[in-house]
Design a protein that fits this description.
This is Integral membrane protein. Keywords: Membrane, Transmembrane, Transmembrane helix. The protein has one domain. Helix content is 68%, strand content 0%. Helix 3 runs antiparallel to helix 4 and helix 4 runs antiparallel to helix 5. The longest helix is centred in the first third of the chain and has 27 residues. The radius of gyration is 17 Å and the shape is elongated. The N terminus is likely disordered.
Length: 142
């Protein structure tokens, strides 16, 4: 049986888990994207880094952002929520910047990144995921 919440308890001390309910799907998706982006970038950097170093480094950066968001969602609490919101905003900015860049200057990207063409290679999930996560993080109880 769970302990009752006492007056003065915060989300941080009660251990509210952002990864429950709809947040569980976000945790799962961010976990999958962490593995996908990390493994893709590691393999590409090992096999042919000179071909498209910018694309491969950007995919690795995406993996780090995804991993941090996954961790924050699992951790829960106010600080984790704020950190996840900041990272989701940074992720969305990255998707929009890189997506636009790949459309305007495709020669800069001889190979695709996770965020190329707004995540088209990943069914546009990279552009939808941070928006969905930010909505969930703003609506989840504090």
């Amino acid at each position: 049986m769970a302990e009752p919440v006492r007056a003065g308890d915060t989300a941080e001390s009660t251990g509210f888990d952002l990864g429950h309910g709809p947040g569980r799907l976000l945790v799962w998706l961010y976990g999958v994207f962490t593995v996908a982006a990390a493994s893709r970038s590691v393999v590409q950097m090992i096999l042919d880094f000179g071909r498209a170093p910018l694309a491969y480094v950007l995919s690795a950066a995406a993996a780090v952002v995804y991993a941090f968001i996954t961790y924050s969602l699992v951790r829960g609490g106010r600080r984790a929520r704020r950190a996840a919101l900041v990272c989701c905003a940074a992720e969305l900015a990255g998707v929009l910047i890189v997506g636009t860049w790949t459309l305007l200057a495709p020669s800069s990207f001889p190979d695709a990144t996770v965020w190329s063409d707004y995540g088209m290679g990943y069914l546009f999930i990279p552009v939808v995921l941070p928006v969905t996560a930010m909505i969930w993080l703003r609506r989840a109880p504090a």
